């Protein structure tokens, strides 16, 4: 019995598991191809708020990993949907992040504004490679004026071909230092919403989460009540997994995605 045989859905983190920067993680396209050929249900859940689901699916497909937009759950979309449910229609929101984040907010029926002077009732902060001091200054002023502060995620780093680089969590920390407090809400992993939404969409009863980070992917799986596989192609190490507290302890640990097709490793 292969590890994957025990589950009706496999939910993949992206950075460090399937992709690394602009390239695929070695072996990932072949592993996903085997799952597709076997008729396995898959989903992708990413804390990266810079791309929209259709853009993520196109990126994956271009790297040899077939994907549909409906299979992709992003923290940007989750944040937009959460605010749309909590705020009046067309409420003004300040987006600090990439164009993909602003597009998700607009699609959710919110009004994206340019700065604190426009009176935003919420500030949404997500990763964007062009985010700078001026963006953080506008967010700082808006939050001090009473705007709700929502972070798409608090990943300290993101993997790249050159090693770990500052992630959205580093930018959130800069704003938290200036404000003297933490965000009102963090939507992305380790919150369980992305995994739960993927399972609902697929109608899955027993999902396996595959990730490379203990503090986000694995902790999110624990909170969602799902089994998890930590692969050692990204951030966290085997030693860190062995020392992890129960709140972020993986069910399985393996070198890479080939473990999905082997007999289940020792939990």
TrEMBL record:
Organism domain of life: Bacteria
Active site: 13, 15
GO cellular component terms given for this protein: cytoplasm
Entry's Gene Ontology molecular function annotations: metal ion binding; phosphatase activity
Cofactor(s) the protein requires to work: Mg(2+)
NCBIfam families: HAD-SF-IA-v1, HAD-SF-IIA
Protein name according to UniProt: Acid sugar phosphatase
Origin species: Pilimelia terevasa
């Amino acid at each position: 019995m292969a590890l994957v045989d025990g589950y009706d859905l496999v939910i993949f983190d992206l950075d460090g598991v399937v992709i690394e920067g602009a390239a695929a993680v070695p072996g990932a396209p072949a592993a996903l191809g085997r799952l597709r050929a076997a008729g396995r249900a898959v989903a992708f859940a990413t804390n990266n708020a810079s791309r929209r689901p259709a853009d993520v699916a196109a990126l994956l497909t271009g790297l040899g990993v077939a994907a549909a937009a409906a299979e992709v759950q992003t923290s940007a979309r989750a944040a937009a949907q959460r605010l749309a449910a909590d705020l009046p229609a067309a409420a003004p929101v300040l987006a600090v992040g990439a164009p993909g984040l602003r597009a998700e907010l607009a699609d959710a029926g919110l009004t994206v504004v340019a700065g604190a002077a426009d009176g935003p009732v919420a500030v949404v902060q997500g990763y964007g490679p062009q985010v700078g001091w001026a963006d953080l200054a506008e967010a700082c002023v808006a939050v001090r004026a009473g705007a709700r502060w929502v972070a798409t995620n608090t990943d300290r780093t993101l993997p790249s071909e050159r090693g770990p680089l500052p992630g959205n969590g580093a930018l959130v920390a800069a704003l938290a230092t200036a404000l003297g407090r933490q965000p009102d809400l963090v939507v992305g992993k380790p919150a369980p919403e992305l995994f739960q939404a993927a399972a609902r969409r697929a109608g899955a009863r027993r999902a396996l989460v595959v990730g490379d980070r203990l503090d986000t992917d694995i902790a999110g799986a624990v909170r969602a009540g799902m089994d998890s596989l930590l692969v050692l192609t990204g951030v966290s190490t085997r030693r860190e997994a062995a020392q992890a507290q129960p709140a972020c302890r993986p069910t399985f640990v393996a070198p890479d995605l080939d473990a999905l097709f082997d007999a289940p490793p020792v939990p």
